[in-house]
Sequence to fold (435 residues):
Amino acid sequence: MATIMDRCFSTFCRKNIRYPSGKGFLYNERFHVLSKEMFLMLRFLVVFIVALALSLTGVITQATSPIQTGNTALPSPPIPAVVPAPTVAASSYILFDMASHQVLLVANADEPREPASLTKLMTAYLVFNALRDKSIRLDQKVSISERAKSAIGSRMFADPRVPVSVDELLHGMIIQSGNDASIALAELIAGDEATFAAMMNVQAQKMGMIKTHFVNSTGLPDPQHYSSAADLAKLAMALIRDFPEYYPLYSQKEYHYNNITQKNRNRLLTTDPYVDGVKTGFTESAGWCLIASAKRGERRLLSVVLGAASDAARASENQKLLNWGYQAFDVVQLYPAGQPVSKLPVWKGSAPEVAAGFLDDRYLSVPKGQSDKLQVKLVAQEPLTAPIQKGQNVGTMHVQFAGARVAEFPLKAQEDVAIGSLWRRGWDAVRLWFK
Fold:
């Protein structure tokens, strides 16, 4: 931009000003005699005035580069563990650290597979959302339709002659994996199960579950009903994160209804004191499936195993993954939420700098005992121009482990910076041209 202005000013000078040979002044019939110093000042003023005009009209815009939002989960595992990974006997699986948002171990996680009753996690998510929106109530009585009563597979044995509360249906669906309860809840919210399945698919897209499509609320087999280990991990994490008030339902070991007591089929609830959920699933075509979550201290891991050979195997393979995740990796807090990491220069603003940091705590999973190999580098957006809003992307933090980049996180403005004065905008516009 500065070069263009220089050319324009030179053209103006050639047409209107001549330079007598050997003289220390400029002369033109239209102007008085000007010293060289005055000529340079005139040149600066022309550039400044045009810069100010462009700045006011928005011609000068901030140069930005695309920056990803949220955590960047790299292909698994981003940092190789020192402890050898276990051999997992399953068609597909994934182990995820919910603190660092990193995949620790994975196999065939994007492969579409039948989810069986793991489908009920999405059914529950929509029910929890309806409860939060107050469109339904826990004590609300629901009539059981003939279609719900005649559902095949696992059931809570709800009686069509006796209205059932939403709370009882949730217990029957989550703990007993009742297909009758799932259909009754779907019909309550959407009127019919097909409409509810469409709602499930809309929510799946919002969660980024790109390898998922639902046609029912139960997980009963259908060629058009499928998901993947990675997508189901996203769903389980969203449920734990978004509805902590209802998540304890998944840790209940049994439920008694209609004079029948049924145990939770998640064996890890009785064998591992740190496991507090999440859901089992089984059909002949899907095999034995289990999503498990464990919390040791403040650290939560989530494992998904699809297509194991037996009920016992789905529990043991999940246990392998969880134990290995805790033994092989530490979680390091890079920066806490709300704490400024750096001050970045601001152009055309009411303040010369803006505090940059993170709106959420930032963690990274690293091989146990090797956190000293971590290095971070902050890269600011250039130029960063006002106005700036709190939470706006203003740069990137690159994280390296042993010299290799393993993650990057967007830096966020920790405060607002308003547009500066007329003089500040004009002056910074000139400085940007010559930068």
